[in-house]
Description:
Elements: H1 2-15, E1 18-22, H2 28-38, E2 46-50, E3 55-59, H3 65-75, E4 81-84, H4 91-102, E5 106-111, H5 117-128, E6 133-139, E7 144-149, H6 153-164, E8 169-177, E9 181-185, H7 218-221
Antiparallel strand pairs: 1-3, 1-4, 2-3, 5-7, 5-8, 6-7, 8-9
Helix pairs in contact: 2-3
Amino acid sequence: xxxxxxxxxxxxxxxxxxxxxxxxxxxxxxxxxxxxxxxxxxxxxxxxxxxxxxxxxxxxxxxxxxxxxxxxxxxxxxxxxxxxxxxxxxxxxxxxxxxxxxxxxxxxxxxxxxxxxxxxxxxxxxxxxxxxxxxxxxxxxxxxxxxxxxxxxxxxxxxxxxxxxxxxxxxxxxxxxxxxxxxxxxxxxxxxxxxxxxxxxxxxxxxxxxxxxxxxxxxxxx
Length: 222
């Protein structure tokens, strides 16, 4: 009986070989797209999607993790990542890692008009498919979009305007630096500085002249 239990447990382990991918899943329609593109693919026996965790779990004894990753990138999103099992880094991969380390991850806040949840979802989905984007968080109430990834902010704004046809303006920018942790660049609303003494006449508040000695009618006011 013990031998049979061991064999069945071994078979379960072989059948339960898992491949975990990180994929941005925004809605049930996105989950269905991922499921359909992987269903019946080479060696895949089971596909599970986790919308909250943005993960796809694939089971199959003969499934190749790299082929599954390429399949998702071609059919669904280029920003898909392989979490488990981690492939061995090659010489070219090491060079790419060095380049990524040289270019720090940036967090940019964009001002974009959103009048409904559909607009917010379209913006999140459209920007999420762009090169170098890791995470997109739209805030419909404040009409801002927080974007995290490795990209050039001005070029990203141009790409959003061309591809999505929507106006975007950089409000704030934050860079994750190696040595100092975070280097924050404030937006336009936070760049206002006050000088003393005032440099311009508009910055100086003049006292009231009603009770001044130079006012002839000051006695009549009293």
